[in-house]
């Protein structure tokens, strides 16, 4: 964190102190890096492929799906609960690759369960991604 000089009326070399503050903040911003964490969640309950997870900073989570999924509802992945949504859960739909109008519905629960809620095609590949803000 930049160490800033307090600026006050009538201070000696005020403009220089202001410039030094700007330079210090610029150095901090230039050297700061946003952490990007990636992981792969193993498939459960009939899902065929892992879910790829990217966490940007401490709160933005992107889930990437590309595989075949069962028609039976249930938990198909687990994510660390600290990366679960801030709300009580979030639902989203992903399209199937070669079946027009066909999709699967999934929910990310507050406990970290990624659940398949509905799917009418277990033969086609479903793909897509979903991004949300997590608890961390």
By secondary-structure content and strand pairing, the structural class works out as mainly beta
Low-confidence stretches: none
Strand elements, count = 8
Task: Note the main sheet.
Answer: 4 strands, antiparallel
Number of helices: 1
Strand order across the biggest sheet? Answer: 1-2-3-8
Helix content: 10-25%
Q: What characteristic shape results from the CA principal axes?
A: elongated
Q: For this entry, what is the oligomeric state of its chains?
A: single chain
**Helix-strand pattern, N to C?**
HEEEEEEEE
Describe the structure concisely.
The protein has one helix spanning 14-31; strands at residues 36-41, 51-56, 60-67, 74-78, 89-95, 103-109, 113-119, 126-133. By secondary structure, the chain is mostly beta strands.
Explain the layout of strands and helices:
Layout (H helix, E strand, L loop, with lengths): L13 H18 L4 E6 L9 E6 L3 E8 L6 E5 L10 E7 L7 E7 L3 E7 L6 E8 L3
Antiparallel strand pairs: 1-2, 2-3, 3-8, 4-7, 5-6, 6-7
